[in-house]
Design brief:
It is a single chain. The protein is about 35% helix and about 15% strand. It has seven helices and four strands, in the order βαββαβααααα.
Length: about 200
């Protein structure tokens, strides 16, 4: 039986997760994270996309991404192929780097975008032993740009949309996006983050 065709809607953001094969590390040091961004830049030049939240952990990564011009599967295939090539060349690695195809969940409404992005940014705390004390201390996450009010150095990272959503919804009592993330109740929200799974 062939693989199920993935759904792609160009106006929708997707929560994408990719893991290392057998949960092995796919990022071994700071240089590897930089190589991953090289793969993102390479792909962006061919297939423009927008990321509003990301987090790279040692053995997996999360992207909240929208691909307006080509199917998301084309974007992800090129990102993963390019990084895999970098990794294998650097470490003389043979074999399968990734566990399987990427997982993608459709995030179709503004409040879900806030919740999923918060979940992504909380990843360094959601480990057996938290990697950092506060999410703003983790260097391989987009939260740093929101927290520091700093313009992203990557052209495909947009930090304007999520704060703008909060301004459009007066029923959200939290004063700003960073506080919203910091107060995010991960265990209560986590089940709802799986309901749009396409894989």
């Amino acid at each position: 039986m062939g693989r199920m065709r993935r759904i792609w809607q160009p106006e929708i953001f997707y929560h994408v997760t990719m893991r290392g094969n057998n949960r092995q590390n796919i990022f071994l040091n700071d240089g590897d994270f930089k190589l991953f961004f090289r793969a993102l830049h390479f792909t962006f030049k061919k297939y423009p996309f927008t990321i509003i939240a990301y987090c790279m952990m040692n053995n997996h990564y999360h992207l909240l991404i929208r691909s307006p011009e080509v199917p998301l599967s084309d974007v992800m295939a090129l990102i993963n192929k390019r990084y895999s090539e970098y990794f294998k060349r650097k470490y003389k690695y043979f074999g399968q780097l990734y566990e399987t195809r990427y997982f993608a969940s459709m995030v179709s409404d503004p409040i879900s975008l806030l919740n999923v992005s918060s979940y992504i940014h909380h990843n360094p705390l959601n480990t057996t032993r938290p990697i950092v004390d506060k999410i703003e201390h983790y260097p391989y996450s987009s939260f740093q740009y929101y927290y520091q009010h700093k313009k992203p150095e990557h052209p495909f990272v947009n930090t304007q949309l999520l704060p703008a959503i909060m301004e459009r919804y007066p029923e959200i009592k939290t004063k700003d996006y960073c506080t919203y993330c910091e107060n995010f109740r991960m265990e209560e929200e986590k089940p709802s983050l799986c309901q749009y799974s396409l894989s």
